[in-house]
């Protein structure tokens, strides 16, 4: 997400933190990687959640 000031971005799978940054990628994907992923962007003005 583009924001000013820049946002801190966190990724979650089923409520568990799995990574940070603008891009979250999975190498050697397996069936246990399936599930609901959410991205949370946050800066001093607020936060936004997005499902992928």
UniProtKB/TrEMBL annotation:
SUPFAM superfamilies documented for this protein: Immunoglobulin
A UniProt-annotated Pfam family: Ig_2
InterPro entries found in the cross-reference section: Ig-like_dom, Ig-like_dom_sf, Ig-like_fold
Ig-like domain boundaries: 1-52
Segments crossing the lipid bilayer: none
Annotated Gene3D superfamilies: Immunoglobulins
PANTHER family (UniProt xref): B-CELL RECEPTOR CD22-RELATED, VASCULAR CELL ADHESION MOLECULE 1
Protein name as annotated: Ig-like domain-containing protein
């Amino acid at each position: 997400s583009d924001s000013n000031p820049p946002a801190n971005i966190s990724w979650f799978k089923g409520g568990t933190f799995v990574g940070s940054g603008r891009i979250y990628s999975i190498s050697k994907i397996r069936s246990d990687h399936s599930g609901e992923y959410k991205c949370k962007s946050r800066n001093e003005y607020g936060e936004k959640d997005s499902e992928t």
